[in-house]
Description:
With about 525 residues, the chain is α+β, with helices and mostly antiparallel strands. It is built from 13 helices and 20 strands. The chain has helices spanning about 1-15, 20-25, 55-60, 185-190, 195-205, 210-220, 230-240, 255-265, 270-285, 405-435, 440-455, 465-475, 480-495; strands spanning about 45, 65-70, 80-85, 90, 95, 100, 100-105, 120-130, 140, 145-150, 155, 160-165, 175-185, 245, 270, 290-295, 300, 305-310, 315-320, 325-330. Helix 6 (about 210-220) packs across helix 9, helix 7 runs antiparallel to helix 9 (about 270-285) and helix 10 (about 405-435) crosses helix 11. The protein is globular, with a radius of gyration of 25 Å.
Amino acid sequence: ALLRTGRRIGALALGVAVLLPAVLPSLDGGLLRGDDGEGAGGGTISAVNPLVSLKENLTQAEDREVLRYRTNAPDGSGMYLRLVSLDQFDGTSWRTSVRGVEDVPERLPRPVGLGERTGTTEITTNVSAAGSYEQKWLPMPYPATGVRIEGRWRYEPVGRMVVGDEGQTTSGVQYSVSSLVVRPTPEQLAVAPTAPGALLREYTRVPKSLPPDVRATALRVTAGARNDYERAVRLQDWFASKGGFTYDTTVSSGTGVAAISRFLKDKEGFCVHFSFTMAAMARTLNVPARVAVGFMPGTPSGEGTVSVSIKDAHAWPELYFEGVGWTRFEPTPSRGSVPDYAAPEAPADELPEAEEASPSPSAAPSVQPSPQDDCTARAAGAEDCAGPTPPGARPPADTDAASAPVLPLVAGAAAAVVLSLAPMLWRWRVRVRRLRGGRPLAVWEEVVDTAWDHGVPPDGALTPRGTAGRLVRAGRLEGAAAEAVHRIAGAVEEPSLNRYRPLTMPSSMPATAGLAGCGTGSL
C-alpha cells in the first residue's frame, strides 16, 4: 500500500514540478542571495507563508513545546512573541509587503512612532528553541531593541522582523533578545495626534470588494467614541465580550472579504477571524492597523522558565498611535490577555450596544453554506470545504398505483449511488481547482492531501521541507519522484524570501494561505 501511495504521490509531483519553472524565478542557491552571490548586504522579503497548516495542530490531542524562555520582565502576561506582521489586505488575504532586508544591526533603531514621553522599560529574554521547531522567522518580544544570535540572520526594519538567510532556521537555536515593555496610558492614547500622511495612507487601505456592512458595523460599534483610542477599545470589547462572539476552531477557514462578512454574521471563529476582522474594521474608520502573528506568553514550567507550545500560536491586531507606535489589542475571547491600557474603564452599560447592518443583496457577497458534518479536518482548511450536498432525487407524483412501490426503491438506489460518489467528486473538484492555477501552495496542498488519501496523514508540526522528507520516506520515493516532491516543497518556502523580486505569478503568494486556526507547529 505504501509503495502504491508513493507511486501516486511521485506521479503527481512529477507532473506539476515541471510546470514550476514557468511561474517561479530560479530557486537555486541561497535563500536571500543577491546578485553578487553573497548573503550580506541588502535584499527584499517578498510574500511569506509562515502558516501552512494550523487547524490540524490546534485540534490534535498532543501538544508540543516549540521553545522555552527566561525573562526579567516584571509581568509575563504581556510577553507575546512576535514572528511576522501582515500589513497588506487585498480582499483575499492579509500578507506581508515586499520589504528590504539588511544585516542585523548591533542595536535596532527606535520603533517608529514611539515618543520620549511614553513610559518604557528595557528587558532581556533568553530563548531556547526546540530542535523540532523549524521556522525561518525568529520569535521575539515586540519591540525588540537588540538580538544576540549565532548563524545567518537578516533584519527587516519596517516590520522589525528577523529572518533566517541561506537555509538558516530556528531549529535548536539559543538567542537573547533585548526589548521594550511600552507602557502608554489611556490618556496618552486618547490624545494621540494623527499619524503621518504616508503611514496613514498605507495602513488604512481596504479593498474595494470589502462589503459595506463591515464599515457600517464598525460605525455602529464605535458610535459615540470621541477618538481613535476609544474606537479601538470598543471594537476590541465588542469582539471579546459584548458582541456575542464565540471562540470556535471548527468553523470553516478563510481570510478574505467573504470570510469577514460571514464571521460578522455567524459570530463564530478563532484568532484569525477576530484579528483580521478587527484590523479591517479599524482601517474603515481611518485607524492604521495591521495583523501580527506569533505566540502567546506560554506557561510557567518551573525554575523561572516559561514553556511555549504549538497551541500557544496566535494572531492579534496592532493599531498605530502617534507617540506610542504600533500597539497590541486583544479581541479574541478566551485567548491571550487584554493589555492594561486597553482595559475598558467605563461600565458596560455606558458603551452603546451595536446593531449589525443587514448587508444589501447587491453589495454583500453571497455567504457560503456552512460546512457539512462529514467535512474532513483538512477540507475545513479550504473555503470551499463545504461543497453543496449532493441532492437526493425526490420522486415525482405518480397516480399509477402499480409503479408506486417501485419509485421509492429506484430513488433510494439513485441517492445511495450519488452519496457514495460524493467524496470522490468533491476531491476531484478540489484537485482540478488546485492544479489549474499552478500556484505552488495549492499544488503542495494537493500533494499532501493525496498522501492523506492513501493513509499518510499530515503532520502540521513539520515545515513543507520536513513534510517532503516524510512523504518521500513513507512512499519510498526515489529519483525524479523524490526530487519533484522536494522541489514543490521548496517552491512553497523559498519564494517567501526571494531577494530578486516578487513571484512572477498572477498574484504573490499570500502570507496566510491555509490559515485556519491559532495553534501551529509550522510557525
